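To whoever is covering the structure queue this week,

Two jobs came back overnight. Logging them here so there's a record in the thread.

Job A:
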Amino acid sequence: MRWRQSFSTILVGKSILLREGLAGILHSADFHILASVSCADDLPASNLQQQQQLFIIVHTGDDFAAAIDQTGSLNKGSYGYRVTWQDDQGGVTGMEFTGDKAIPTASDGQSIQFDNLPATAGPKSIYRTDSSGKGDFRLVGTLQSGTQSSFVDSTADDARSQTVQNTAFSRISNAPRSFVVSLNNVGEVKPSGQAVP
């Protein structure tokens, strides 16, 4: 008889239907669901302290919206971001989150996570303002792989790099990425109407 390891998992997302569907798929693949909550604030702390291996799956939506975490060095405020990369013609292309698209934090000690960043041919650089949402866009991180689509910023304002993004760049609109995931011997997760190759 073959022994199978069980993985402790926490699901976080606003859609209970999505969480319950994913929980069913994961359960059949030997994942133990410790909690399924709509907000990270609802997580049961007692379960988290006892686990050695833990997977946390967070659904933040289908756009470039950011997830706010409770651990980090960001203070209460509103942060402007620029994500830039070199395009195929050697120019700079990117996205900007400022004004009504700036990302607010409700209290001190938080981090901001970006998901669904576009695939690029090369590295992506992430620049951020201070908590006022104004001023210089200073480097807070680089995604070396163009296929990497997530970034977590927990950098305090005074710990940002001295590298400033002040060159003109072509701005793109939201160009969401989509994925088809096939889980062997479990089932398939895919957008409706799409076949898995």
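Job B:
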Amino acid sequence: MSVAAGNVETADDAAGAGAHRDNLPDLPRLRQQVLRQGIRIAILAGFRWFASEILGVRVRRWTAQQAVSAGAGRHVARPRQRTRPVRFTLIDRIVALEAGKSIRAVKNLSLAEEYLGDHFPGFPVMPGVLMVESLVQTGAWLMRHTEGFKYSVVLLQEARAIRFNNFVAPGKTLHVECEIQKHDERQYTLKGSGTVDGASAVNAKLILQQFNLSDTNPELKASDERRIQKLQQLFDMLWRPTAT
């Protein structure tokens, strides 16, 4: 028995306290386990987004518990769910097209587009990043048409000398034009510009890259074919040479 600062501690009390301390979890080790599980979940979520949005490959959706179990090497059975990635088209119509040279297209901005509610409240204007995306999509159609739809994927590799000169407000039309400056088998350099009511709105130099998913994985050849077929169908709706 010990006495300190007026408190009496018996041998039984000391033994009970020691046993309680032995049952406490190892906090540093617990924190490491939680951190590792969080990293696994973040990596798997990032992979799923990349596969769905960039590669267009459907990946099964996992819960956090299943992701941790998979990271630990345990298989958790779950019925496959059909997912459909969100896609958007920022070109309403192609008005002029010359393979290997240039393209002109239009984007009609409508107040019904949901992102305008936040950009900006009380002053809706088309975000600059979407203006650049309109240039990219226009240039991509020029590349696909020039190459005869040989490639399923066209991605922006680099954007240089971007200048925003004017706003695009609801009810206005963004007129987009892209011209090919140089190109090789897999890469195009284009000069892109956009105007509103005859005034410059955006300018940029774009470097776009084209490839097929099967270039690195032959098993994705069928996916390439499906993507190309859908792109051709969309192109037929955007570009109608005989329309007035």
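Note for Job B: Residues 27-54 form the longest helix (28 residues).

Please reply-all if you pick these up so we don't duplicate work.
Q.
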